[in-house]
Design goal:
Helix content is about 40%, strand content about 20%. It is of the alpha/beta class. Helix 2 runs antiparallel to helix 3, helix 4 packs across helix 5 and helix 11 runs parallel beside helix 12. It starts with a helix and ends with a helix. The radius of gyration is 21 Å and the shape is globular.
């Protein structure tokens, strides 16, 4: 049975974000807690807000608050504060799987290979195996770190593709790329059958826009996903591709996206998938208005509090067109690279892109701006 405290904790979300311009040792943190109201006195600089509290605290004050919570018996919240602060100050620097690893101390680039007839970005390679392989080879030469193969469009308004059709699009491309490209291959799919077939064909990663919500907790989960060590990208999406951009709405955008990703991580762990295999994507453009997307990008660093690598996909998206007036997705590269660079400055570690060469320059400059010349 779930007691009242456990129900309260399941709805509690702590959002921490460092205020710019402070060294780690004396960082001022913007803090917002939802779903929990304290009984005792509030820390200095913090006030009640909605169903929780918000304010700004220096690092030592946060640690002192965690100690006071622990002494008062609220171990859950005390550990949440300590764990979230630690995750921010020690972000993941390595992602490993059998036969491969990725150093995340610098930004990494994931090249997009769409084998669909209806890609929003105009780069679909439907049933063009040699062209898809050639694109993978070109992206590898341009410096891609991962290649992401997708056989079902998830653009706004897209209709689902049958399983057999998606298998025919994806599996031959994965098989060939594994043979000729020395990079990890990711499969962008929400279907268990496609995940399994792609892994059998040599894919190393899974990228699921539904965050595994459609795979269930049955034999596939235990037999395939829990039994293999493939990294898995969990993305947030409100609604489904066919309808997700029809008036998306949120009561508290950051808390809802953060809480969703935290819940999916907990679900994966409960079903045998190690946390160390998981990557998070806030889902720019997936059930979000332009204002929602910009808010997520401005506060992307909040999600570092979950202690997992962050993947960001902004390449050629409608947001770039909204900001620039550019209707053609293929001509949104410059704006895409600006958003990718800003994403790196706000905590993104993997960038999913169409233009690998341009993105590598953009994120290298952003990383150098933040950390100095390598």
């Amino acid at each position: 049975m779930i007691d009242a405290a456990e129900r309260m904790h399941s709805a509690t979300t702590l959002l921490l974000e460092p205020v710019a311009g402070c060294a780690w040792s004396d960082t001022l943190w913007s803090m917002r807690l939802t779903g929990w109201r304290p009984e005792g006195p509030l820390p200095v600089g913090v006030s009640l807000a909605g169903d929780g509290m918000q304010g700004c605290l220096h690092r030592e004050a946060l640690l002192a608050w965690a100690a006071a919570l622990r002494a008062a018996g609220d171990l859950f919240l005390a550990e949440t504060v300590s764990r979230t602060l630690t995750a921010h100050e020690a972000p993941p620097t390595r992602l490993a799987w059998p036969g491969g690893a990725l150093d995340l101390s610098r930004p990494r680039v994931m090249g997009i290979i769409n084998v669909t007839p209806d890609s929003f970005s105009g780069d679909g390679l439907h049933h063009r195996l040699e062209a898809a392989v050639a694109q993978g080879l070109r992206m590898a030469a341009e410096g891609a770190d991962i290649l992401d193969v997708g056989g079902e469009s998830s653009r706004p308004g897209a209709e689902p593709v049958g399983c057999e059709e998606e298998l025919q699009r994806v599996v031959p491309v994965v098989q060939r790329l594994v043979q000729v490209v020395g990079l990890p291959i990711s499969v962008d799919t929400r279907k268990p059958e496609v995940m399994e077939a792609a892994l059998d064909a040599g894919a190393s990663w899974i990228n699921d826009v539904t965050a595994l919500r459609e795979v269930g907790a049955g034999s596939f989960m235990s037999r395939v996903l829990a039994g293999r060590a493939a990294p898995i990208v969990l993305m947030h999406m409100q609604g489904r591709p066919a309808t997700m951009q029809q008036a998306p709405h949120y009561g508290d955008l950051l808390a809802e996206v953060y809480g969703f990703l935290a819940e999916r991580v907990a679900w994966c762990v409960a079903h045998g998938i190690a946390r160390s295999r998981l990557i998070l994507d806030p889902g720019i453009g997936f059930g979000k208005s332009p204002a929602h997307n910009l808010q997520l990008l401005r506060h992307l660093r909040v999600f570092r509090g979950l202690g997992l690598p962050l993947l960001l996909g902004v390449s050629r998206k409608r947001l770039v067109g909204t900001l620039t007036g550019e209707e053609s997705a293929e001509r949104r590269e410059v704006g895409s690279h600006v958003l990718a660079a800003l994403g790196v400055l706000n905590g993104a570690q993997i960038l999913r892109v169409h233009d690998v060469a341009g993105a590598r320059q953009a994120v290298a400059v952003a990383h150098g701006w933040a950390h100095g010349v390598p």
